[in-house]
Amino acid sequence: MIIQVSPQAKERLARQLGDQPGFFKLFYDTDGCDSDGIAVLLILNERDSDDESIDAASLPFVINKQQKIYFESCLRLHSTNRLHLFQLNSNSKSYGNNIKVVDLRDSAMKSESSEWFVG
Fold this sequence. Notes:
9% of the residues lie in helices and 39% in strands.
């Protein structure tokens, strides 16, 4: 899996990661969604055992191998004019124009099924 990250998005993501260790996790959140879920970028302290690396412009990106079914193999990530929001798309689909980055490094919570969720 590959995410082509625009230079502006790479700069903003690196700034959000800061000096603390962490990983960006591409996550498809369906919790509380009536129909379709939403794509979210989580910042986590460490990888889970089911996480796989994503080639993303030297940024530390991972995805749970079961979540890969929600995304195409080649994605593009751009930053919007609004700080902390991104656009994620592929050649055939838009995954959202308001993709949030949620930093869970200090307040990470796991549900009973060991899947990360955004509460």
